[in-house]
Write a structure and sequence with these properties.
Number of helices: 14
Helix content: 25-40%
Largest sheet: 5 strands, parallel
Bound molecules: flavin-adenine dinucleotide
Strand order of the largest sheet: 3-2-1-7-19
Distance between the termini: 76 Å
Length: 529
């Protein structure tokens, strides 16, 4: 068996390693068009920021170390330019010698990843405009900072890579601006959750330009660039990092006549086989299904790429394993906070016209009396008819990761909010609470579905007729300095039982407090009265 792999990083390297563990005699050949294999692309922003000090830490293997350990034939700076499906060969260009040759294969795995998308605006090809996908691109950004000593950087795009780049450029002491077309950063979470991030990012002195579209980059002779945007004043910067998303690197597959999905991802079955029987594809280049909704999705993340690579090798070497889909479980560091998400968001449910309810709780990350406890925001999205979990998002300084991992597991197991009430999770004061935030989210959501309380979101409040309700603020008077909603009635929770007559009987009473807990207690008092 001769296995040829195109792309030697996340999916490709993972497929190759699994293949070798399953078959010691197979010939395994990897072609990688870049100068490095098996490098840690997820670590690139952190070397720019100096958090990962040693560049060598990002280079997990060399062709020689892969030969020694796994007996792979790794060819870097070799680009596969064509697949000859009928002849079972690939055409390879040796970029070092500028020569082309044919290589045969029995099975082929494509893991060419995705390319950074560059918006079609004038000036996007300037010398001070960078993308951040590869080690050489990271080196170029570092070089520019070291040689040109810029003062101001602009990141276009407020997604995972954009925010990681912004944070790390800030770490380098630069002034940083982020331009994002959407009204929020981190579009994989809902806007109410992203609002927490906006405040935190601004606190770290990064200028956010939200809801504005890049129109042009006007470079001048003095090395500065004017960033021209729609819907906000232009501003000057010294260099630009483009992080507006990626597109599947599908040209090889397209030219070979493999089936491609509507958004450019290679179509694969659940064994990662393409429309051609001896060709498999994995990673950022493929279209897969979302196990929660059944929607076809392209989700460029390292965990799916690695697991798909392993699974493709399993299937090639006779172990039938089926891919279960990608629901987009992800996490990103945003200065001192983490934002994590899995499954469906509120806005995705609205877009797909899927029935949903949400519940957001804001407990402490661990018991408040043990030092270091921080407020955690945890939002769950679920089916109002059955309570089945559809998605979850969490933001906080501590503990967002483990809650989302628990909830990703719960969603995979098709659990409901009622199941969350019963989860037995680890607890000691430094780590959690006897009622973990995941339990609390379950209690609050299950209480709502049982009719113990009702909850509405800000979005739902905006849709109500203004004269149909009265807002009741049940916080303590001194808390109101943090902000009030205009025209609200103010009765602190501890006075509520004695001041019931002040509430109108002909209107709906909508209670708010700081984080929802006292609102719930207030609602229980009122509904029982
Ligand atoms: P890649 O790992 O990109 O590998 C594809 C390789 O194929 C490339 O090296 C390319 O040069 C090569 N190639 C392409 N075409 C050819 C050809 N014709 N011939 C030969 N070689 C070819 N994901 C997370 O889950 N968490 C993170 O924290 C995270 N952080 C990231 C940070 C950055 C800066 C970047 C860029 C990505 C990050 N990702 C993260 C995404 C993750 O790295 C990708 O989802 C993952 O690497 C995809 O694996 P892949 O094998 O599909 O593609």
């Amino acid at each position: 068996m001769k296995l040829v792999i195109v792309g030697g990083v996340a999916g490709g390297a993972s497929a190759a390693a699994r293949a070798r563990r399953l078959n010691e005699d197979a010939e395994i050949v990897i072609f990688e068009k870049g100068p490095y294999v098996s490098f840690a692309n997820c670590g690139l922003p952190y070397h720019i920021g100096g958090v990962i000090k040693n560049r060598g830490e990002l280079l997990l293997h060399t062709p020689k170390s892969l030969k020694d350990r796994f007996n792979f034939d790794v060819h870097v700076k070799h680009e596969v330019t064509k697949i000859n499906v009928d002849g079972h060969t690939v055409t390879v260009r040796n970029l070092l010698k500028d020569e082309e040759f044919e290589e045969t294969y029995d099975k082929l795995i494509l893991s060419p990843g995705a390319r950074a998308f560059i918006p079609p605006v004038s000036g996007a090809d300037g010398d001070n405009v960078f993308t951040l996908k590869t080690i050489p691109e990271m080196d170029s950004i570092k070089d520019f900072i070291e040689k040109k000593t810029p003062k101001h950087a602009t990141v276009i795009g407020g997604g995972y890579i954009g925010i990681e780049a912004a944070e790390n450029l800030k770490e380098r002491g630069l002034e940083v601006a982020v331009v994002e077309m959407a009204p929020q950063v981190m579009t994989p979470v809902d806007e109410d959750m992203a609002a927490i991030l906006h405040e935190h990012i601004r606190l770290h002195d990064v200028k956010l330009h939200l809801g504005v579209k890049l129109k042009a980059l006007e470079h001048s002779a003095n090395g500065r660039t004017k960033v021209v945007v729609d819907g906000a004043p232009s501003f000057d910067t010294d260099f630009i990092v483009m992080a507006v998303g990626v597109r599947p690197e599908n040209s090889l597959a397209k030219n070979a006549g493999l089936e491609i999905g509507p958004r450019g991802g290679i179509v694969v079955d659940d064994t990662m086989k393409t429309s051609s029987p001896d060709i498999y594809a994995v990673g950022d280049v493929v279209q897969v299904s979302d196990p929660v909704t059944g929607n076809l999705v392209q989700i460029p993340l390292a965990s799916p790429a690695n697991r798909q690579g392993r699974l493709a090798a399993d299937n090639i070497f006779g172990r039938e394993v089926h891919y279960r889909g990608t629901m987009g479980t992800a996490i990103c560091k945003v200065f001192d906070m983490a934002v994590a998400t899995t499954g469906q968001t509120e806005k995705a449910c609205i877009r797909d016209k899927r029935p949903f309810k949400t519940m957001t709780v804001h407990p402490m990350s661990h018991t408040s009396y043990y030092p270091g406890a921080c407020r955690l925001s945890l939002k769950i999205v679920f089916d109002p008819r059955t309570g089945t979990l559809l998605g979850a998002q969490s933001i906080g300084v501590d503990g967002a990761d483990k809650r989302i991992d628990v909830l990703a597991t719960a969603i995979t197991a098709k659990m409901t909010v009622f199941d969350l009430e019963h989860l037995e999770l680890c607890y000691a004061p430094p780590y959690g609470a006897a009622k973990d935030p995941v339990n609390l989210a379950g209690f609050a959501a299950a209480n709502m579905l049982r009719g113990d309380h009702q909850a509405i979101t800000v979005r739902e409040l905006d849709e109500l007729k203004k004269d149909s309700y009265v807002l009741l603020d049940i916080r303590r008077p001194e808390e109101r300095a943090a902000g009030v909603i205009e025209g609200t009635l103010e009765i602190p929770l501890c006075q509520l039982r004695d001041r019931l007559e002040e509430l109108p009987k002909d209107k709906e009473v909508i209670i708010y407090c700081a984080i929802g807990h006292r609102g719930y207690i207030g609602q229980r008092i009122l509904s029982q009265k």
